[in-house]
Every structure is written in C-alpha cells, then in structure tokens.
Write a structure and sequence with these properties.
The chain is built from 18 helices and 6 strands. It has 455 residues and is mainly α. The structure holds arginine (ARG).
Length: 455
C-alpha cells in the first residue's frame, strides 16, 4: 500500500513490530461501517462515481460476510485491519477499490474506528452495570431489615442492615454509569475527514459522515482529531474506577465467606474446590474479580504512559492504544457478570450477621446518644461514661444491655432503666432515620427510588 518510495520490502522483524492486525482485526465491524459511510459521502459529493461507490459498498458487504463467518485476515504483511480490508476489496472488485481511500488517511480512519468501538464497549458495560444494579436492589429489598455489623477499620462499629450495605454498592455503580455516560458524550464526535493531520482539499462533507455513523458532530481540529486518545483514556479511567468498586465488593465476599465470619455461603456455581483439602470451598470468582481490578488499572496506566510524551499529531506509539482497551474491556465485562451472578445467588446468613452485630458492643453509640438525649449530658462526657460501661461489660463477658441497672448506675447515677430499649441492634438501626441512614424505613425509600430509576 505504501511501497512506492521503497526499493526493498521490510525485514521480517519490522513486519512483526509494525503489524497491528493480530489485535486490531477486532475493529473490523467499525472499519467497514466507517468505510461505507466515507464512500457514500464521496459519491454524494461527486468525488467518486456512483458506480465505483456501488462496487465498493457491495465489496465491503461481501467482506463483512466473510469476516462474520470467521474468515478474518492474518497476514502480517497487510499490517492492519484497514489495509487488510482494502487489499481484500481490491481482490474482489479490482481497481475501483483504490478510490475508497480518497480524502482519508489511516490516521483519521483508525481514530474513527476506535471511537466507534469504545462507544459500543461503553454501551455493553452500561447494560451489564444496569443488570448488576438490579441484582443489588433485589437482594437489598429482601434484606432491608436484616441486621449486620457495620465496620470501620474492619472493627465492628455500629449495626447496619444488609440492605443498606448492598445499596452502598448501588450508589457506586450509579456513579460509574454516569462516568461512562459522560465519556460517551465526550467521545461522540467524528474525526473522519481530518485525513492524515491537516484536513483535505477534496470537497468532503464531514457532517454527513458524522451523522451516518451516529456521531453528534464532526471534530473541530484536524490535528487534535488524529492525535486524541482521550476517549480511550476516559473509558479506561471509568473502567478502573468501576473495577475498584467491583473489587471492594469481591473482597467483602471473600471475607464474609471465610469460616470465622460465615456471613455468606457462596453458591457452588461461583466457588471451586481444592485439589488437596477436601473441605475447601474457595471464593475464586471473587478473588479473580479482585485480581482483575489490578490488571484493569494496569491497562489504564499503560495507555497513560504511552500518550504522555507524544507530540502532535499521529505517532505509531498510538497503535499500542488498542490492546490495553481490549484487555480492560474483556476483564471488566467478565467481572461485572461474575459479581452480578454472585450477588444474585449468594446465600446470605442473616443469623450469623445479627449475632456478630450483637457481639461487638455495636450499640455503644446508642448508649452515649441516650445519655445526651435523655440525661442531657454533653456528648464528650457521655462517650466517656459509655466507654466505662463497655469496659465493664467486656470484663463480665456480657452484652451492654445485659449489665444490671445497679452496675450501670454505679458507673453514672443519671442512668435509669429506660436505657435498655435503645440498646438492641434493631432499635439501633431503626433510630438512624436521617436521610441516607441505615433505618429500614429509610433504606426502603432509597430502594423504591432506585427501582423507579432502573425501570
Ligand atoms: N495500525 C495503525 C494504528 O492502529 C493505523 C494508523 C497508521 N497510520 C500511519 N500513518 N502509519 O494506529
């Protein structure tokens, strides 16, 4: 395709380092769509004849059918999917194929193809995240009043409900979806027609190709058009943030599934056995989601570093933009599906959770709050009194609400037996009715809103 000025062909090593075909053949659908839009526009503008455009379009459709059937090009001498398809087109329709590349360069071609691919990837991720949110909300509704320990520092802090805990992930995914939506809106400008870097002297209609490919408008600067990979980084950054969320939930499943916790029994379908320890039931899917987050962040880092020193406009380094995006997308799609499956099918163990919440003096704050509210003691002092009560309960090996009233009165005479009511874990969660709090009544409101927005 570019051999005119060269006397010798490339070395085998050069061919190998130069070729992106092994990975960019994944862009074939977008490449054919881009070429069809381009040639239709060329014909409309009178830059190629309707007859040539018809032959090219027919040839591209036939090639698409071949590719669809699994017959994808592999010869490294063809370099990339763009040249492979054009050379296939020449085999099929002859010299008219050579008119397709009028007023176009591979630089704007690949920028267009890749944007189209990332746009499809975002749509696929969004559909996956929607299903994941539905699973979270369904399980949250089932456990809107199931009490579990809430943790800070992974120490039992205050009782919360499992529904509340799951809805925390709903919120994270809501933000992830908005990040992807943002990325999609910013991405949706068409670079086709920027040509190599400077635009073209042919009377092209960039609005027409932009529209044909579903873009909101053409990009406004030809140099930026061929050198911009922000859209790929936007995708990778949103993917990284999302993977972090999935990884945090995965980590919780790993902890919850361990025997000392026993908060969940992971389904057989998402666990594996050990080849040596017959009793084992390992949370491998969750561990791999946690692991994949590291790889996804690595992909984001890879492209960030690739781009950071590149002068305008296109440099071949940018060919390396695709593998990290493809890898991150595959890992993310799989991680979302695995976490959705786990959330849908995990057997939560609310009895174990409740016992753990009751065991950790998780209602100590409720005792302090009672001292403030009923006995009008300043919070700092109430905190101190409560600390003494917890210390005593701990040394007696009992729960806070099992300390006899005489013992509590000895700690502070202002305590009376009305203090017991708020000390149960149920009373504790029910009291936390502030907006976004863990009270079942409050969580139920958030669930209702979520269901409406997911409908
Ligand atoms: N395979 C190349 C890529 O993915 C296509 C663009 C090549 N452009 C060039 N001037 N060599 O970036």
């Amino acid at each position: 395709m570019w051999g005119g000025r060269f006397a010798e062909g490339p070395a085998a090593i050069m061919r190998e380092i130069n070729a992106s075909l092994p990975f960019d053949k994944r862009l074939w659908r977008q490449d054919i769509a881009g070429s069809k839009a381009h040639v239709a526009m060329l014909a409309k503008q009178g830059i190629v004849t309707q007859a040539d455009a018809g032959a090219i379009t027919g040839g591209l459709d036939a090639i698409a059918a071949e590719y669809e059937g699994g017959d994808l090009p592999g010869d490294l001498a063809l370099e990339d999917i763009h040249m492979a398809t054009e050379s296939r087109l020449a085999e099929r329709i002859g010299t008219a194929a050579g008119r397709l590349h009028t007023a176009r360069s591979r630089n704007d071609q690949v920028a267009t193809d890749f944007r189209l691919w990332v746009r499809d990837a975002i749509d696929a991720v969004d559909a996956g995240l929607l299903a994941f949110q539905r699973a979270l909300v369904a399980r949250a509704e089932e456990h809107v009043a199931s009490v579990m320990p809430g943790f800070t520092h992974l120490q039992v802090a205050q009782p919360v409900t499992l529904g509340h805990h799951l809805m925390a992930y709903y919120e994270m995914i809501r933000r992830d979806r908005s990040r992807f939506a943002d990325a999609r809106a910013r991405l949706n400008e068409c670079p086709l027609g920027a040509a190599a870097l400077a635009g073209t002297g042919f009377p092209i209609d960039r609005q027409a190709t932009a529209e044909a490919l579903g873009f909101a408008k053409p990009t406004d600067n030809s140099l930026d058009s061929v050198s911009d990979r922000d859209f790929a980084l936007d995708y990778l950054m949103a993917a990284t943030q999302c993977a972090i969320h999935l990884s945090r939930l995965a980590e919780e499943f790993v902890i919850w599934a361990s025997q000392p916790y026993g908060f969940v029994k992971l389904p057989d379908a998402y666990s594996t056995g050990s080849s040596i320890m017959p009793q084992k039931r390992n949370p491998d899917a969750a561990e791999l989601v946690r692991g994949h987050a590291g790889r996804i962040a690595g992909c984001m880092t890879a492209l960030t570093i690739t781009m950071k020193g590149l002068p305008l406009a296109y440099s071949k380094d940018m060919q390396d933009d695709k593998p990290p995006v493809f890898e991150a997308h595959d890992l993310l799609a799989l991680s979302i599906a695995a976490m959705t499956g786990m959330v849908e099918t995990t057997a939560f163990q609310p009895e174990r959770m409740r016992r753990a919440a009751e065991a950790g003096y998780s209602t100590a704050t409720d005792l302090a709050d009672w001292l403030v509210r009923v006995a009008d003691i300043p919070f700092r002092e109430a905190h101190h009194i409560t600390g003494a009560a917890v210390k005593r309960a701990e040394s007696d090996g009992v729960a806070l609400d099992q300390l006899p009233i005489a013992v509590l009165k000895a700690i502070d005479a202002r305590i009376d037996d009305r203090v017991y009511a708020p000390l149960s874990v149920d009373a504790s969660v029910a009291a936390r009715k502030s907006h976004g709090g863990t009270a079942p009544s409050e969580v139920a409101k958030r669930i209702a809103e979520a269901k409406e927005s997911l409908a």
